[in-house]
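Fresh eyes needed here. Have a critical look at this protein's tokenised backbone.
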Amino acid sequence: MTIENVGKKRSMPPVTVVSLTEPGRALAERLRSLMPDAELLHRPQPFQDAIRHRFLSGRRLVLLCAVGIAVRSLAPVLRDKYQDPAVLVLDEHGRFVVPILSGHEGGANEWARQVADFLGAQAVITGAQRYTHPLLAAGFGCNRGCPLESLLVLLDRTLAEHGLRRDDLRALASIELKRDEPGLHQLAETLNLPIHFYPAVVLREYDDRLSRKSEIVFRETGCHGVAEAAALACAERLVAHDFRAELIIPKRKNTDATLAVARIYGNRED
């Protein structure tokens, strides 16, 4: 499975791989099988102009060179972590993968792990501990009698669209009203994940963090959004600290169900 084929997390920007040496060019060709749509550049001239132009256009960069070269080249065009695309630096032999920009917001840390896994390399993640262990929880709402197949279709389609897989999830959640839904329990069994059900009064605590509040849902359930609130509530209960979870996939739906995914960083050993 390639990074490009599993979908695009947050509409992932295209990739440019830049090499400066012959071993680096060989490594770039290896990376093509992981990122088949990537642009490969070997010794572009002028070098700094080439990578700055692509960086400013929003392309993610894989630079097969020294970290110092990457830093000096990109320093004049850096904006902030919310705008800068992800940048990875690799040594020419592909032994180490270092995310140097947008590790958290731009997904470079997780991208570095994917590249390192592919190459059998070491990902060098230097961010704060809470930013190096992303934990994902999926929240569901569903119609009465929603079948397992409909839940799986919604889940797999949504995960693929955002560059995620089933095994990225740590838990599932819904509202207490759905505790007796066979489809949700079958889903948890299929994915080998725990599923948690929260009362409406708990989910209402997340009203101000929903992408959209629904009065219809409120009248039916007692909260303004089931999938998003359940995902946030579940994610924040995966860890031992008080950091807030964030929605990385707002509510998606099909005819039978709704789904949202929330992310938090850290683990119970934090």
